[in-house]
Write a structure and sequence with these properties.
This protein is mainly alpha-helical and 365 residues long. Helices cover 57% and strands 8% of the residues. Strands 1-2 form a two-stranded antiparallel ribbon. It is flat, with a radius of gyration of 44 Å.
C-alpha cells in the first residue's frame, strides 16, 4: 500500500493514489437484468471506472524534439546551399535551371544519410554511403565558400556560412548512433547469414521468372515459324534446314536434307512427281569416286491412297522435313499426311499444323 493511501472498504472501489493521475473510462459489459422479480436475458451495460495514467515518457519526448530540430536544420541547410550554389551557377545558364541543379548538391549527401540509416546494422554496407556522403558534402561545402568569397570578399565569413552543412550532417550522425541498437558480433553474423539466404531465394525466383519468359518467347517464335511440334532448342537446326533447302525443286528436296548426309539418303519407293525431274549430273572423270547406281523409277500408282500405302522414309522428330518428303512423293492430302507422320513417330503433330505447313511448303515450291 502506497503512503497516504487508505484501505478500500468491501464492496467499494479502491482509493486513488494521490501521487498518480487518473482518467475516467467507460467499460462495456453484459449485465443481468430483472424487472418485477423476473430475471431476463443479459443486456448491454457498463460502468465508469477510474484508471491510472502512466507518467510522461520524457525520453521519447526529448528524442522527438531532437529529431524534429535536426530535420529543420537539414531543411535550412538545403535552402541555404541552394541559394548559394544557385546564385553561383545562375551566370552560366537559365536561372531556374541553375537553382534546380543546385538542389542536387545537397540532396546527394542527404540521400547518403538515408542509406546510412538503412544500413546502420551492417558496417560493410554502411561504409560506402558514409564516404560518398562525405565526398558530396565537401563539394557542397566548397560551392558555398566560393559563393561567399564572391559576394563579401572574405574567406572567413564564407567558411562560417558553409559550416552549416557540416553541422547538420554531424548532428544527424549523432542521432543515428544514439538510436541504433547495440549488437554483438554473433548477432551481426546471424543477421548477415539470414539476409544471404533470403536474398538467394529472391534471386532464384527472379532468375526462374526470367528463364520462363525466355522459354515462352522461344515457343512463340517456333510457332510463328511454322514448327510447333518441335521441342525448344531445335529452332537453329530447323532454320539451317530451311536455308539449305530454299530454292530447290520438290524432287531435289525429297532427295537431300540439311539433317541427313548426302551419302545416307534412302531411296524413295514412292512415285515420281508430276513435275519433270532434273537431269542427273555427269559422273566425275576421276576413277576414285564410284558411279552412283541409278534407281529405277516405279510406275505411278493409280491413286494417292496407293501412294500413301507405299513406304516413304520419314525422319522422326522433324515434322517439316517429313512433310517435304511426303509432298515430293506426291502425297498432298493433309489427312493422309497427318496419319503417316503420326505412324512414323511424330505423335505430337496436330492436324491443323500439318495442313498449314503443307500449304506453306507448296507455296514455296
Amino acid at each position: 500500500m502506497e503512503p497516504g493511501q487508505t484501505p478500500a472498504q468491501p464492496g467499494t472501489a479502491p482509493a486513488e493514489n494521490p501521487y498518480l493521475r487518473y482518467r475516467t473510462e467507460r467499460r462495456e459489459q453484459k449485465v443481468p437484468f430483472s424487472a418485477d422479480g423476473v430475471h431476463y436475458e443479459m443486456v448491454d451495460g457498463g460502468q465508469d471506472v477510474r484508471v491510472p495514467v502512466p507518467p510522461r515518457d520524457w525520453d521519447l519526448i526529448v528524442l522527438r524534439l531532437v529529431t524534429g530540430a535536426i530535420y529543420g536544420m537539414l531543411a535550412i541547410t538545403l535552402i541555404w546551399s541552394v541559394a548559394s550554389i544557385g546564385g553561383l551557377l545562375s551566370g552560366l545558364t537559365w536561372t531556374p535551371l541553375a537553382y534546380g541543379a543546385a538542389v542536387a548538391f545537397d540532396l546527394s549527401w542527404m540521400v547518403c544519410l538515408g542509406l546510412e540509416w538503412l544500413a546502420r546494422y551492417d558496417d560493410e554496407k554502411r561504409r560506402r554511403p558514409f564516404w560518398a556522403g562525405n565526398f558530396f558534402l565537401v563539394i557542397s561545402f566548397a560551392g558555398v565558400i566560393v559563393h561567399g568569397i564572391k559576394k563579401v570578399d572574405s574567406a572567413w565569413i564564407a567558411t562560417l556560412g558553409a559550416l552549416i552543412c557540416v553541422i547538420s550532417k554531424g548532428l544527424w550522425m549523432l542521432l543515428m548512433q544514439h538510436t541504433a541498437l547495440p549488437l554483438t558480433s554473433e548477432h551481426r553474423q546471424w543477421m548477415r547469414l539470414r539476409s544471404g539466404r533470403i536474398g538467394a531465394r529472391l534471386a532464384m525466383a527472379s532468375h526462374t521468372r526470367t528463364m520462363r519468359r525466355m522459354e515462352a518467347q522461344e515457343r512463340a517464335l517456333v510457332e510463328a515459324l511454322g514448327a510447333p511440334g518441335q521441342s525448344p532448342g531445335m529452332l537453329s537446326g530447323q532454320a539451317d534446314n530451311w536455308t539449305a533447302t530454299a530454292g530447290q525443286a520438290p524432287a531435289a528436296q525429297a532427295l537431300t536434307s540439311a539433317d541427313t548426309p548426302p551419302d545416307t539418303v534412302p531411296a524413295l519407293s514412292g512415285p515420281v512427281p508430276s513435275v519433270p525431274a532434273p537431269q542427273a549430273p555427269q559422273p566425275p572423270a576421276t576413277p576414285a569416286a564410284p558411279p552412283v547406281p541409278s534407281v529405277p523409277a516405279p510406275l505411278p500408282p493409280s491413286s494417292e491412297q496407293d501412294r500413301a500405302d507405299e513406304v516413304v522414309p520419314i525422319e522422326r522428330g522433324n515434322l517439316t522435313a517429313a512433310l517435304r518428303k511426303l509432298l515430293a512423293a506426291g502425297i498432298t492430302d493433309p489427312t493422309t499426311a497427318h496419319r503417316m507422320v503420326v505412324e512414323a513417330g511424330i505423335t505430337d503433330a496436330k492436324a491443323d499444323t500439318v495442313s498449314r505447313t503443307m500449304r506453306r511448303l507448296q507455296r514455296s515450291a
